[in-house]
Prior knowledge:
The structure holds 2 protein chains of 2 kinds.
Chain A: E1 9-12, E2 18-23, E3 35-39, E4 46-49, E5 63-68, E6 71-76, E7 85-93, E8 99-102, E9 106-110
Chain B: E1 2-7, E2 11-12, E3 18-26, E4 36-41, E5 48-53, E6 59-61, E7 69-74, E8 79-84, E9 93-102, E10 107-111, E11 115-119
Parallel strand pairs in B: 2-11
Antiparallel strand pairs in B: 1-3, 3-8, 4-5, 4-9, 5-6, 7-8, 9-10, 9-11
Amino acid sequence: QSLLTQPPSMSAAPGQNITISCSGSRSNIGINHVSWYQQLPKTAPKLLIFDNNKRPSGIPDRFSGSKSGPSATLGITGLQSGDEAAYYCATWDSSLSVGPVFGGGTKLTVL
Amino acid sequence: QVTLEESGPVLVKPTETLTLTCTISGFSPNFARMGVTWIRQPPGKALEWLAHIFSNDEKSYNTSLKTRLSISKDTSKRQVVLSLTNVDPVDTATYYCAQTLSLNAAAFDTWGQGTMVTVSA
């Protein structure tokens, strides 16, 4: 059972805008920065967002991140078939785990 | 451009020690200042952080696996080694090493392709 809760799956049509939620607590998201990863099938995860809302070089601005209290959100605009992947949130946990923790992942299907 | 590549056994027997190597290549003048993390992913499951080694050789471990894990680095070889003792079938997973942008933000910006390890008799 992950300390960070994500919806297991989502689906949307090409061109649509979606948001993926990540719910934590005061001991993790509430006081630490959040990162988001995209994992395409059979590949290593790729960093999409760090420090809540910053994009590494090369990540399109269709991807955005935000945080409010103990929750974070990943936004994707103009969905493309290539966005079909698993998405993970991650942050530092200062209580039980005392280290980086990942969400359970959200499998996004582009219809 | 930094690249990371994991290597190690494909199959390990229960109770044995698993040793994995992460070799870092490419343009990285500050290898000695790099932080490197190991993360694993059981088949069909989520990611799990295992261990991190800081540039000053300080180490940090997943508290639930701390007694079984050991991380070290060889700067001259540009390698980071992870050992996991007394393995069990639940340790079957793809193991990744990654360059750490910020450990406190769980931000890992360059990953290896991963190496799949199966624990089975």
